[in-house]
Amino acid sequence: MTVSRLLNEAVQRLKKAQIEDPALEAGLLLSWALKRPRAYIYAHPEMQVDPVEVRRIMELVERRSLGEPFQYITGECEFMSLTFKVNPSVLIPRSDTELLAEAALFSLGCQTPFVSHALFRVPKQGVRRVLDVGTGSGCLAVTIARYARDVRVDALDISEKALETARQNAELNGVSSLIHFIRADFLKDAGFAEQPYDLIVSNPPYISREDRTGLMASVEKFEPELALFADDGGLSFYRRLAHLSSGLLAENGVILVECGFNQSQSVADIFKERGMEILVLKDLAGIGRVVAARCRV
């Protein structure tokens, strides 16, 4: 079968399944499966594809047509210009979370032009200790260890399968020696911190269980529930972090958390109730996406 015919059949199957932008997704799947740039595939429509390879590719197309995320099919995704392995035990890193990663790097002294320079910075002297709560794929922990200087990161998660994926990503990106992985239930355990942290980052579960009916089917069906939903209207992790902050944060330490599109004020209020100084960072759509908190100085 020619690659042109194969591409057309893939597009039609995805179109029938009402996948958004089927032509783009079909091209991406063929590019990944054939290990050729999309431009090459489009430029060589008469290239022959082996029947065994055709069947394999159409199996991938069928998985996508049933709603399985492209990143789970390929087993990888890009975040902050780094490659991460992903699977159904971890949440797929989103571009929205890059604002949190950029904020963390700025707080640690990196030059990040897209973050407000009013954001709190942690002291520069010595090795800075960082805690990533709910590390999942390790995208935040690995990014911080990869780009920031003089850091040691503790990456915490309740899921051993998620931690194994995060370990693989640390190795993939050459930062295994800079990250210590901790299995713990953040909502219940408190003895995981050997020393205070200069920076705490978290993209916690923040979707209210009452809102699950409004999720995209691909998210609800395929991504891990542990990484999506939280009690107390989606605010339980923020309340727990605020409660533990006095014992977890070093002097002049900073907390950075991602929140949902309508949660920034509620999350900010939780930390304000602890007497903390607050700053809300907005994404490109003008939505409050990251809440920064520190003890008043």
Automatic annotation (TrEMBL):
It holds the Pfam family MTS. The keyword S-adenosyl-L-methionine applies. Residues 6-75 form the Release factor glutamine methyltransferase N-terminal domain. It is an enzyme of class 2 (transferase). S-adenosyl-L-methionine binds at residues 134-138, 157, 186, 203. Methylates the class 1 translation termination release factors RF1/PrfA and RF2/PrfB on the glutamine residue of the universally conserved GGQ motif. Belongs to the protein N5-glutamine methyltransferase family. PrmC subfamily. This is Release factor glutamine methyltransferase. The gene is prmC.
